Amino acid sequence: MIKKHHSDIKPSEITDKETYLNRRQFLQGGAALALGLGLPGCDASEPKLAAPPPASSRKKLASTKNGAFSINEAQTSYKDITRYNNFYEFSTDKAGPAKLSKAFVTRPWTLTVDGEVSKPQTFDIEDILKSFPLEERIYRLRCVEAWSMVIPWIGFPLADLIKKTDPTSRAKYVAFETLYDPKQMPGQQTGLFGSGLKWPYVEGLRIDEAMHPLTLLSVGLYGEVLANQNGAPIRLVVPWKYGFKSIKSIVKITLLEKQPPTTWNISAPREYGFYSNVNPKVPHPRWSQARERRIGEFSKRKTLMFNGYADQVTSLYTGMDLKKFY
Ligand SMILES: Nc1nc2c(c(=O)[nH]1)N[C@H]1C(S)=C(S)[C@@H](COP(=O)(O)O)O[C@H]1N2
Ligand SMILES: [Mo]
User: Fold this and answer.
1) For atom 8 of ligand 1, which residue has the closest CA?
2) Using a 6 Å cutoff on CB, does residue 222 contact ligand 1?
3) Staple 209 to which of 22, 50, 56, 205, CB 3.0 to 4.6 Å?
């Protein structure tokens, strides 16, 4: 199982020697759990990239550029954004999701919003696309593994969707859930021999984080409908938090009074907290978070507090010890 999983990667394709040696050790030891328990998609090796999505599966998606919410940095190429992915439902390899999600069915698709709301609703994805004005926003995405990208997302504020359901005063947290469909998502079939994660993938935010104007539900990027490997048909984008908070292929959003469990926190609570704000001053227990490699660049750059969004989000955490609430 493990062997098969990595058989398409030749040592010569892996630039980082240490990663290769670790991987070999891992394969020899057969320690299936180790892969998943450590890193939310964080494996620094260079993957063997799949062919780009066929032109026939790519659809244009119109949006209005939101300059005020966009950064002015070179965008990561479409090729890298769609071929270097973390989507453990399909594969734990960076190149895997692009190859294994080609036949993923994203229509029909519904997204249910329930819990502490007076108007629980199930939205059809087609209605969502018609009801919410779509914006383009260029955001940084910083993976907990210390790489980053700059992505021109298309989407709309999560707050706009939540407001339609009329949250009650008890709504203090928001829980998110990815589709559970092992027939379509091979990574959900593997149990302990795959990523070791518990399915479905779940994430959570505090209600003020969820309602923050930067928090986006994304349905596209680079002027097109989201590729399956990027979380089609609808995924979250929380730019000041580590990438694993940006849950893909969402089917359910539940407003709650209590803090919900989250996939990576369940998997390794000492390493991944509920908040998971990008913070160069709080190292991961096994590596520094002070620097990152921008995909497509060679040298590393400094990681910015809250991934560069400190002006907008610092006030959400006033009085909180961010070492404790990591
Ligand atoms: N359902 C689900 N969502 C997920 C993941 C995943 O494995 N499953 N990986 C996360 C991680 S670790 C990152 S860095 C981002 C990557 O998003 P991208 O592939 O669109 O760049 O998705 C996040 N959302
Ligand atoms: Mo990540």
Assistant:
1) 87
2) no
3) 205
Q: Which of 44-53, 129-138, 252-261 has the lowest mean pLDDT?
A: 44-53
Q: pLDDT digit string (tens) for 255-292?
A: 999 999 999 999 999 999 999 999 999 999 999 999 99
pLDDT digits (tens, 9 = 90+) for 169-200: 999 999 999 999 999 999 999 766 689 999 99
Task: Return contacts of 26-31, CB within 8 angstroms, 24+ apart.
Answer: 26/2, 27/2, 27/3, 30/2
* Domains in the chain, CATH or no CATH each: 11-316 (3.90.420.10)
User: Ligand 1 test: best mutation among 43, 82, 86, most atoms within 8 Å of CB?
Assistant: 86
> Is any ligand 1 atom within 6 A of the Cβ of residue 47?
no
Residue 301 phi, psi (nearest 5):
-120, 165
SS3 18: helix
Tell me, in angstroms, the distance from the centre of ligand 2 to residue 131's CA.
Answer: 30
Is there an atom of ligand 1 within 6 Å of 230 CB?
A: yes
Ranges of H-type helices in the chain: 2-6, 17-29, 32-38, 78-83, 96-100, 125-131, 158-163, 207-210, 263-267, 310-313
Which helix (H) or strand (E) element contains residue 204? strand 202-206
Gap between the Cα atoms of 16 and 14, Å rounded: 6
pLDDT in tens, 66-114: 999 999 999 999 999 999 999 999 999 999 999 999 999 999 999 999 9
By most ligand atoms within 8 Å of CB, the mutation choice from 90, 202, 244, 307 for ligand 1 is 244
220 lines ligand 1 (CB under 6 A): no
